[in-house]
Design brief:
Order of helices and strands: EEEEEEEEE
Number of strands: 9
Radius of gyration: 19 Å
Helix content: under 10%
Strand content: 35-45%
Strand order of the largest sheet: 6-5-8-9
Distance between the termini: 33 Å
Length: 131
Amino acid sequence: MKTLICILLLLFSTAAASEQIRFSWNPSPDSVSPSGEAFVTGGYNLYWGAVDGTFTDRMDIGLDTTTVVDVPTGSEVFYAITTYTTTGIESGYSQSIRFPLDPTGQPSPPTGIRARTERNVTEHQVFELSW
């Protein structure tokens, strides 16, 4: 099975009544299975929906590695991309992206961060996490 390798970049532009997102990613490399079957990239699909992981709409992008989509104003939408081969085999979804990222327009801070020190931390010692 072919693995989707993609990096999604979001660029936002505000129009009078709607917003747009530009998706860009690295092309998925062609590969050969252990049995010798060739997996040649046939294109990409962009999926979206109101619930993360439940995508109700799809757009076939072809072999382009960038696309711009309109976003309904005031809506929260989740997006993911897949790649498919020339024989119709489709990869799993990429990591989903939520738009808008945050009501303030800023990216949400990462979750699940844990810090560990090699020594005991007293109440007056400080360390900084950044992302």
